[in-house]
Amino acid sequence: MTFGSDWDLGEQLKALDQVADAHGRGLRFEGVIADLFRANRFEVRASPGIARPRQTDLLAVRGSDRYLIECKWRSSKADMDDIDGLRARLRRTFGATGLMISMEGFSGTAISDVSIHRDQPILLMSGAELRSLGMRHSSLLDMLWRKREALLTDGRAIVDEPDQHRRTVQRPALPESPVRFVIGGGEPASTIGFAGHYGQVAFARELHDIDWVPASGNGVTLDVSLPALTEDGILDVLAKLADLGWASPDAYWSIQQTHAVWHGFGAAAFADALPDWSTRAAADEAHDSEEFCYIDRCAGGFYSLTATLPAHEYRWARSVVLSFQFQGIPLDTSPLLQLCHAIGVHDEVYFRPRDEKSVNRIQLPAWTRPIEAVHALVTVPDPILGRDFVSGLVIPNPLRDPRWRDKRQGHDPDLGPLDGLYGLEELEYLICSLSDFHLADDRTYTYRLKYVETARTSEGRIVLPKAHWEYADENEDNQQEAIPLLRA
């Protein structure tokens, strides 16, 4: 059998269904399995001598992965005799994992025996699972990885695993952010919504500058395009990020509709907000889809998770991209490989050099700097003092002023690079971070915008307006009661 670019597993299996000669079908079946592994960049040898004096159908090798493969296409299920035969071959090999592919499935005793004997791991693949690969409902590399992880970690031999089992696995607790929005003295909330538009923009509290290192250069990007996912699948990815140490309480995010945007802090708040699509879609102006942009820090940089989802019950996401920005290529890439494998990505992942600075600072015109109104405070508790501090503000967006549009259209050189601010005029408010925190008390403060910093991932945009504050009356008596300020 010849392997080529037009080779299709589903069509090959349909052709084998029509073969009446059992012996001839078995030989052709081995060829189909060999081509399947070659299509996934394995080196494949038929009837290898690795298990002599016994004969094994195939040996597939890709890097450190070595699979000793037995193929069974017959009218009965593979049983203990088949498992014992493959295990005897494994005893004569070094560092190989057994893989038995049986079109009719496996007996209960065979599955139970494989689950118990993990010292010589054997993976089981049924005909239904093989056909699912032909229909592209799963990938070979992901299926093998999940089967191996379940066997070695949990002592569980996966065969014909139903999709609902994967969805009902209990997710780990997601990191919660202590940051809250307080509107007009009301109850603190983890999310705030206001008028806006699409744009994949999230407001940061601090920006990680990956260029802030002694060496020259602009860092690297690693983009991971995820397979088609449901909303539950996206939350599973977030849970995997948390479980493997890639999610932090410092995350920030936005969900965008055509008429409004919602912003919040922390992975837990995002997981609570994402399923509430019906509330966001209730407005007359709402579109039939929404976008989100989730940003978090990680060792050596930061990343974004972005996607577009339908705003109805059929919550299958498209354009799901995990985009990492690192100060360089990590010497140890094993944590990244572990993460990619855990979320179902096993191939086609590459580092690329960035061609621009990580963080740009934009000085705004003088007339934008006085903050005349505050829509909400952004507060954070101090666990030592037991007091809340104001760490940021939600302010009316000065970029909606016609003077800003005039400045932009005139390409005023004093404004500097404006790409990072594109589309922000659509937002009703900006979420600012204070350079210094102050107590959430009854004193009167005045605020001024200092500048705006922006950063990008491949799919998301990050905006950080910075403001500073002063007491409204520098001579007021209670100023002496102020305690040392926390740094942002």
From TrEMBL:
Biological process annotations from GO: DNA restriction-modification system
InterPro entries in the record: Restrct_endonuc-II-like, Restrct_endonuc_IV_Mrr, tRNA_endonuc-like_dom_sf
GO MF annotation list: DNA binding; endonuclease activity
SUPFAM superfamilies: Restriction endonuclease-like
Segments forming domain Restriction endonuclease type IV Mrr: 27-133
The organism's place on the tree of life at top rank: Bacteria
Full protein name: Restriction endonuclease type IV Mrr domain-containing protein
